[in-house]
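note to self — DONT lose this again. spent like an hour looking for the file last time. sequence + predicted structure for the chain T wanted, 134 res
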Amino acid sequence: MAAPPRRILVIEDDKDTRDVMAAALEVEGYLVIATADAFGNVKKLAPDLVILDLFLRGGAHGWEQLDVLTLDPATRHIPVILCTAALASLEAHRAKLLAMDVHVLEKPFDVGSLEAIVSMALAAAPRRPEPFAG
């Protein structure tokens, strides 16, 4: 019996980007839940992976969502891919991202890069059990 498909939650406010990600990942056999809601019920959805846009609806809500995912023991183990074009913000937080075991997908990206980082993040799962304290 085949294993059930891995579940990926895509949190991205740009509809075109969200649709491209969902379509590309579904072709690869993943079950994709795509939303623009940064603070949806991640615990209830129980994804195997979260792809999180850093800037949602004009604000840096992705950082807040990342902190919530990291500090909650119920979601701490879920691997996260932070997706953004805000390279300066990424550079300023590089140590934090490394300590949190967060993968980064820079925009613009191609489908091959998306598929590769998803495979890598799932293979490396789960993240460290202890939250980042810094």
